[in-house]
Amino acid sequence: MVQVNMETHLLGANEILAKRNRNLFNDNNLLVINLMSSPGSGKTTLLERSIEKLEGQIRLGVIEGDLYTDQDAQRIENKGVEVIQINTEGACHLDAGMVGKAFNQLPVGDLDMIFIENVGNLVCPAEFDLGEDFTAVVLSTTEGNDKVRKYPLIFRQARVVLLNKIDLLPYTDFNLDRFREDLDQINPSATVFMVSGRTGEGIENWIQWLIKEVTEKRLESELK
Amino acid sequence: MHELSIMEGVLDMVRESAGQNNIRKINRLKLVIGKLTMIMPDSLQFAFEVLSQEDMFRGAVLEIQEVPALIKCKVCDNETVQEDPYLFVCAACGSNQVEITRGREMYLDYYEGDQV
Fold it and tell me: In terms of pTM, does the model score above 0.95?
């Protein structure tokens, strides 16, 4: 009997493709954000609001991940933005290979930023690097503040946390202090935006921050 | 749910390596999985049973070593083993400026088999 030592990362194949994506994104001076949340937290509505606000300032592309249907892609397309739909047909997350293929279909030379809307799920997507600059997690007040503690990994990795449906806060048991305390112990460096995709509350702060990020990324690329 | 596709990847790696090493029969595989990964050992075991029906893997044992989460404080250098709930705070000084040093592992350590 022989023993063969491997020490091979289980997601090694994805890591290689994610690195390739990251190089492509950088070569094209693109800021790429991986948007994640549970189903129904309002990712697509937030995207719609963001697109409206960014119009004329930032040229956006969207990669839409869903198990089935192209409903979300149609909603984005109706806003006049380039969008590529990925249907995972049952798979619980996007991987770097799928994103790489979708990226090739976008007119990347005409874009400043890409949003990747991941499959609604707080578990599996956290493990799959897509090559993005950073991840943004959407949590809605109707889901409850306990989700931060229950899904620590995805919140730990996030650069941005968008607390959505803030307009519904008075009608829920969402404990804002507890949310802040938990997030401070899981990811103290996360930038938090309190927003409502429905009423537009708080969206402006998020947009101004995004514009700053795109500008910084562009300057960084030009300096290289 | 993604454990099935992860296990497919593991078996592919082993098949390829076994081919290069003239190994025809696999007896044991060892994986190392950190507690801070979104991968469940039980689901991996199940996926292994489902996917290892071919002759090469028949009767093989899958061993999974779990690695606890360890955080290191950037302020006082203390190391804390972290358990559920996973709040990343130093047990000694209470600082939240910590780095995760263990618990994110996920790799195929080795496999054992019989050569042709």
Answer: no
